Amino acid sequence: MTVIAVAFILAAIGIIGLALSSITQNLNDRASETVNVQKAYLTAQSGFEWSLQKADANNWTIDDVALLEGVRILPNGEAFRLGYDPATDTMFSSSTVGSATRRLRFPNFSTFLPAVGAP
User: Fold this and answer.
1) pLDDT at 92
2) Which residue of 3, 22, 51, 87 is surrounded by the most CB atoms within 10 Å?
3) What are phi and psi of 116, to 5 degrees?
4) DSSP letter for each residue of 51-74
5) DSSP class of residue 114?
6) Residue 14 bridge partners (DSSP)
7) H-helix or E-strand spanning residue 108
8) pLDDT of residue 33
9) Is the full-model pTM beyond 0.90?
10) What would the DSSP string read from start to end of 33-55?
11) Is 89 exposed, middle or buried (0-12, 13-18, 19+ CB in 10 A)?
12) What are the structural domain ranges in the chain?
């Protein structure tokens, strides 16, 4: 009878351990996905910052925006993609980190560029 009780207790402890291990793994996966979402957002945001800095440093106008489009890779290995829609004057920046993708819009992009002939 004692052997059966010990076996039952050991089986119960094993099941509890398995359940806790599964819960811990699930929480770990969610936490890493949350980090990837934040990284993707910040990488896409850095695309906007880069595009404005690049345009300002080169005194580019809206006619030069095509030079900003494409994929740029950051020093940490993450990348953002820039695109411009002239019909809506909107710059898009997107980034994918892991399975998380973020796409940001920057409306009225031309208002942030230097005017033609401005000092």
Assistant:
1) 93
2) 51
3) -65, 125
4) HHHHHHHTT--GGGGGGT-EEEE-
5) P
6) none
7) none
8) 79
9) no
10) HHHHHHHHHHHHHHHHHHHHHHH
11) middle
12) 2-112
- Residue owning tokens 């291990």: 21
User: Tokens 């010990």 sit at which residue?
Assistant: 6
The residue count for the chain: 119
List 105's β-bridge partners, or say none: 92
Name, in order, each residue with C-beta under 8 angstroms of 46's C-beta and a sequence gap of 6 or more.
74, 80
| C-alpha separations of 28 from 4, 14, 18, 76, 108 in Å | 36, 21, 15, 23, 40
* Both tokens assigned to 30: 């969610």
d(CA 86, CA 11): 66
pLDDT in tens, 79-94: 999 999 988 989 999 9
Q: Which parts of the chain sit beneath pLDDT 50?
A: 116-119
Residue 66 backbone dihedrals phi, psi, to 5 degrees: -60, -25
